[in-house]
Amino acid sequence: MKTNPGRFFEDYRLGETIIHAVPRTVSGGERALYHAMYPARHALYSSDAFARACGLPASPIDDLAAFHVVFGKTVPDVSLNAVANLGYAEGRWLAPVYPGDTLRSESTVIGLKENSNGKSGVVYVRTRGINQNDTVVMEYVRWVMVRKNRLEVPAPEAVVPDLAKVVVPGALVIPAGLDFSSYDFALAGEAHRLGHYEIGEKIEHVDGVTIEEAEHMIATRLWQNTAKVHFDATFREDGKRLIYGGHVISMARALSFNGLANAQMIVALNGGAHANPCFAGDTVKCWSEVLDKAPTAAPGVGAIRLRLVAVKQGAAPFALKGEDGKYLPEVLLDLDYWALMPV
Amino acid sequence: MKTNPGRFFEDYRLGETIIHAVPRTVSGGERALYHAMYPARHALYSSDAFARACGLPASPIDDLAAFHVVFGKTVPDVSLNAVANLGYAEGRWLAPVYPGDTLRSESTVIGLKENSNGKSGVVYVRTRGINQNDTVVMEYVRWVMVRKNRLEVPAPEAVVPDLAKVVVPGALVIPAGLDFSSYDFALAGEAHRLGHYEIGEKIEHVDGVTIEEAEHMIATRLWQNTAKVHFDATFREDGKRLIYGGHVISMARALSFNGLANAQMIVALNGGAHANPCFAGDTVKCWSEVLDKAPTAAPGVGAIRLRLVAVKQGAAPFALKGEDGKYLPEVLLDLDYWALMPV
Amino acid sequence: MKTNPGRFFEDYRLGETIIHAVPRTVSGGERALYHAMYPARHALYSSDAFARACGLPASPIDDLAAFHVVFGKTVPDVSLNAVANLGYAEGRWLAPVYPGDTLRSESTVIGLKENSNGKSGVVYVRTRGINQNDTVVMEYVRWVMVRKNRLEVPAPEAVVPDLAKVVVPGALVIPAGLDFSSYDFALAGEAHRLGHYEIGEKIEHVDGVTIEEAEHMIATRLWQNTAKVHFDATFREDGKRLIYGGHVISMARALSFNGLANAQMIVALNGGAHANPCFAGDTVKCWSEVLDKAPTAAPGVGAIRLRLVAVKQGAAPFALKGEDGKYLPEVLLDLDYWALMPV
């Protein structure tokens, strides 16, 4: 077999590091496409002049675009035979990515737990995105349920990593030079600074986007994510193409501009759940909740911890979970992240 | 409220200048996307070598792409609560925009007139697009009908600006260095120079494009135009997404290459009307009429004033207005502009 | 008539060279779009770092993207009135194309043969893509059946060029500096080197992509290919838009990564047939057959000759031709090319 059948649960070894293929040099092309796929408007990622006024050398590639590039490379090795993408934790952006940078990805297996049915198991990997200077630009833990192929292989010793519920503020990495002390609120689009947000405050982000097949496939291909289920209408029995969860993440984050225009840089991904599948024709909207706030050592820069919830048509305001504690069917995404905001 | 509800008629003050948010650095990515969205083929905007042979330092971003970037920024402040986009006047391109340039927009309110029903009013703004060197790269006047929110606010004194019906040839700004004296007609695609066009001549541009939802949304997002009506299929009662008028402008201009390949640079927008709405599934075609010609001071460079009419399927040849003087239902756009052409 | 009606069979003269219009400067934007339209993952075209480790100055634009740019320019002069695209031969990539390069195209008429019905004829052209330094970056022969307009024009003397069935290995041009002696198989995605492939071996490439109207139009416009039939749903009687054959070529080539990840650079196009039309909604899959192998003079670099067959939904494994020797209705493309691979 010359083609890659993907790894099955029994193919992973605790502690092994997988070098993911197909490094990627990003350019202004990726930036333009990201802004064409999502209504992304955070000024720091739109304008070199604005980024320079904030102490950076130029406008970086959107943090989530960098995430998608890093994530996409892991798909052939981690999730080709995945039944479900179960969670994220301990995600941190460690250095901005600029046009001209080349990214590659590596993942270390940090946990393995076979399911009691013996037909699948949970694989925990810590993935690192690394640039051409060997700088780690981001890292995150992800766990997926993967099918077992050779059912006769004995279960490995169960190891479930002890993962932080949230990245503590002291662990957030602020990009070198970042300075919001002369931040231009007019150009950024809103006057709200960190002090204007209250913990517990919820924001309905108003705007919505109806998703088309061409769009999510274009985006997902750009990240070189190869999972069949996103592209091949003959693959699922219902003839639907499942939209890459990351497409919903980026759509929701971009829509959250309206009310969170100054939540500029994403620096940590505390957790996330793809609550329900998203398909073409769905209209995505979102709301946010302020979960926490923290100071940072950088001038004028604070951190805001946000829950970002993406919902589809028919969702009630601030829809999340039902009385049974389960996500409501209109909820697509429940994400928990830290962003940097002028204080 | 953290989200932006948009301005209502009573929120505008005569003479005020609005700084629009989200400056944008453009790159080869925006250029490639523009050429992927529209069948744009004017050689000066396709080839650095061709542009240099015409005296420019490199191939600029298409003039209408620059217009869309500048225009898109104004939407959250000017047309979020607009009932109708009524007109354009006195538009001039003042300097080419190159990859690497950063654009921002400002608008000054130059006219206000409440409607007699007291529920809406017309707002006139003069918008300027400004680059990272504080050079004004373009300006235009646009007027829109905007809803009133607090109906009890007294009407402002009515001020309707006196706008030029057409930008006079002497006011056209020719890019520094532009020289068409050794213009390569073979590479440009057609042999027709300014002298070959007669005032009153009409050209049927032959080609047509059927528009898809994904395409107009991708384009409109790229210009960071956020008007819900273009993206959210649940917003209008009929479930249709209205296509951004600028998408039709760019589509028609690109289609007009076939017959006007040498109408290279757009230097003025005299006026324009979005005659009827355009929706996905419509097939856009166009025709042009030569309205005027003028010399310029630049070597080998003349100016041609053109009417560009976009129509959809079912339109008769050169369709425009009915006997009642109103636009025919198949007419989408009636645009009046000046372009530069080799003499 | 200001618009271009295209050339008819009687308009071609043996030996004449046609300068095609609209030169094009490519950038990272074209690269990003190519990777967004097709699941292209060959590392040499994805990463500057990988390309440099292979002795090139940077990552080139995908070979087929360069082909499409060159090909697209020929459409207004060669195939606007074509009834059928009959074949390719003697295609060679002679120099990589990098972001910043400007391409133009020229074609020489090397054969003419009027059909016995007197209503059409076959035109053979040798097309060259040329960069800003006047370096020929690729050349290929293509023949098309073109309608005759003035049926009374006498048939030209029939000249059918003697075309090579296959580009011989000695005629393959290896990019200067190319060196696969320290090729990184892990980053490239597969461990298979030239020695692992057997002549006659067939590979089912597993993945499939369902094509959308927006996608093929975006791609085809990017190459400035203007043929109405791809864009205008009112043009064909059945209301379908025919997908540009090159879209299928690129889709299949990208899908063949899974099993041929190390077939990095395409250096020759021996032949090709668009066996059946492709329409939006079709799901494209592909298979390959190893036709030949050859050494090259470059360190660590071998050549592999591959048949690439694209099929649509419903195709049997390795579908190609029926008992009547004709292509099966599910077969879209049968391409024969040489690629460079580490030995």
Automatic annotation (TrEMBL), chains A, B, C:
Entry-linked SUPFAM superfamilies: Thioesterase/thiol ester dehydrase-isomerase (SSF54637)
Highest taxon, organism lineage: Bacteria
Pfam families assigned to the protein according to its UniProt record, in alphabetical order: MC_hydratase
Protein name from the UniProt record: L-erythro-3-methylmalyl-CoA dehydratase
PANTHER family per UniProt: BETA-METHYLMALYL-COA DEHYDRATASE (PTHR43664:SF1), MONOAMINE OXIDASE-RELATED (PTHR43664)
Organism whose genome encodes this protein: Gemmobacter aquatilis
Single Gene Ontology MF annotation: lyase activity
